[in-house]
Amino acid sequence: MRAYEVTKNGLRLSGRDRPSPGPGEVAIQVEAIALNRGECRSAVQGEFPEGIVPGWDTAGIISNIGTGAEAPPVGTRVVARGLSGGWAECRIVHAGDIAIVPDEVDLGDAAALATAATSALAVLTRSGPILGRSVLITGASGSVGRFAVQLARMGGAKVIAVTRREADVDALVELGAHEVLTDLDSASGADLIIETLGGAPLVQAVGLLNPGGILQSVGWSSGQNATFTDFAHLRKNGGAIQGFAIGEYRVGALLTQLIRLVQSGALKTSIQMRQPWEELPAAVAAVLRPGFHGKAVLNLKDSAKNQA
């Protein structure tokens, strides 16, 4: 099979033996890859060891099942998330990190859910019901933000989206935001804040928490340090800051819920780019450019059949 591996000179398409699943794992013939800014940045900035095959989010067909794995049968269409190995024609994942994809759901749309949408769903639900609560989302134009806006609206919250891009205001309203702001200066309080930027925006957002409110820090795209002079606001109102990363979190149950929402038409995946997987290095570069929002998906279906 073929796979993109990290080298000191960048990504290289190379030949490898097909991997075999271990206990509790499944092998997936990959047909669609969805890119995330975090993995793309790590792949090109030397944060991964040389020789590793990156890739978190994929969808495809189960081709082999490891001993003891509680998984659908070989031939089932699934979406999967893993910590590496996704930028290949075949990858291995834990059986707890997959969900069945119905025939009427596009595999590219399914792949786009695996990290960003599961992160959004997890942070929106980990601190209790959001019905009737106000939810403020920073970096709402990003992948996690777009999913969070939609899911918060479905959960019955008042949704306040924050984006620096005036051009994204109408799109965020269409996704479900009740209010869209272009900076935090004009924001009022919120019961739950989904903070994706880190740095100075994180510090400012903490001051917007309502009494007993929670800020979930799920990203650090600003690249800035967050410097707090004090936590007087939190001490006075009983608010809290929690950090969250999907990491090794088992996402199969979350993916099953999200697939149902896509199937019903209730959840949009905001795919901005679709390319053949041979264009993966160029797609990685595109995702890292300022102003790229939504998801980039790479199709392997034809090459996977030819190279299996």
How large is the share of residues in beta strands? 25-35%
Main sheet, how many strands, which sense, barrel? 7 strands, mixed
The percent of residues in helical segments reads: 25-40%
Question: How many angstroms does the end-to-end distance come to?
Answer: 6 Å
Overall residue-averaged pLDDT value: 94
What pattern of helices and strands is seen along the backbone?
EEEHEEEEHHEHEHEEHEHEHEHEH
Stretches with pLDDT under 50, minimum 5 residues: 304-308
Structural class: alpha/beta
Descriptive report:
This protein is of the alpha/beta class. Strands 3, 4, 5, 6, 7, 14 and 15 form a seven-stranded mixed β-sheet that branches. Strands 10-9-8-11-12-13 form a six-stranded parallel β-sheet, with helices on both faces. Strands 1-2 form a two-stranded antiparallel ribbon. It has helices at residues 37-44, 107-111, 116-125, 143-154, 169-175, 199-206, 232-237, 252-264, 280-288, 301-307, and strands at residues 2-7, 10-15, 25-35, 57-65, 77-81, 90-94, 98-100, 134-137, 158-162, 179-181, 190-195, 209-217, 240-243, 271-276, 295-299. The protein contains ten helices and 15 strands. Mean pLDDT is 94; it is low at 304-308. The longest helix is centred in the C-terminal third of the chain and has 13 residues, at 252-264. Helix 3 (116-125) crosses helix 4. Helix 4 links the parallel strand 8 (134-137) and strand 9 (158-162). Helix content is 28%, strand content 28%.
Summary keywords:
globular, single chain, alpha/beta, 308 residues, six-stranded parallel β-sheet
